[in-house]
Amino acid sequence: MKWVTWENIGVDRMACIWLIKKHIDPKAEFLFVPVGSKTFPKGAEPFDIPGARYSHQRGHCTFHTFLKKHRLTDPILTRIARIVDEADIVQEVAVEPAASGLDLLCRGLRRISKDDDEALQRGALLYDALYAELSVENR
């Protein structure tokens, strides 16, 4: 399936793409359009774009929306969703210590990458490592 989102990915979009590839659609293809675009390639499912089926809902990031719509109940994914929420959405109280570091790393990956595809390749390792570490902590 083709998925489309705005270019210059950040913590939530990077997390969503990792989630889609790992847990929803391993053969997914991702397309990036300029920020603010309201037209998308035919047949591509938009995400993390205002008004899209997969976007921020009820104060939570798009990663949460994917978990809910695809009935993913893995407690590690739920914890990652909380971290991504806190990293992506300004919170007055920090509950997840990893959130600010995750946001910082995702922004840095974007800056050192030539494009969003390269940032995604680098970011996948980051989310794989986060999942692995949280799995150990959850035992």
Rg over CA atoms, rounded to whole Å, is: 14 Å
Q: Report the portion of residues in β strands.
A: 5-15%
Looking at the structure, what is the overall shape?
globular
State the secondary-structure class: mainly alpha
Parts with pLDDT < 50 across at least 5 consecutive residues: none
Whole-number mean pLDDT: 93
Main sheet: strands, sense, barrel:
3 strands, parallel
**Separate helix tally:** 5
Number of DSSP strand runs: 3
Write down the domain tally.
1
End-to-end gap: 34 Å
Helix share bin: 40-55%
Helix and strand sequence: EHEEHHHH
- The main sheet orders its strands as 2-1-3
How would you describe what is shown here?
- With 139 residues, the protein is mainly alpha-helical.
- The protein has one domain (2-137).
- It has 5 helices and 3 strands; from the N terminus they run βαββαααα.
- The protein has a 3-stranded parallel sheet, with no helix packed on it.
- Strand 1 (2-6), helix 1 and strand 2 form a beta-alpha-beta unit.
- The radius of gyration is 14 Å and the shape is globular.
List the helices and strands and how they pair.
Layout: E1 2-6, H1 11-24, E2 29-33, E3 44-46, H2 62-69, H3 75-88, H4 98-112, H5 116-137
Parallel strand pairs: 1-2, 1-3
Features:
mainly alpha, 5 helices, three-stranded parallel sheet, 3 strands, 139 residues
Question: How would you summarize what this structure contains?
Answer:
The protein is 53% helix and 9% strand.
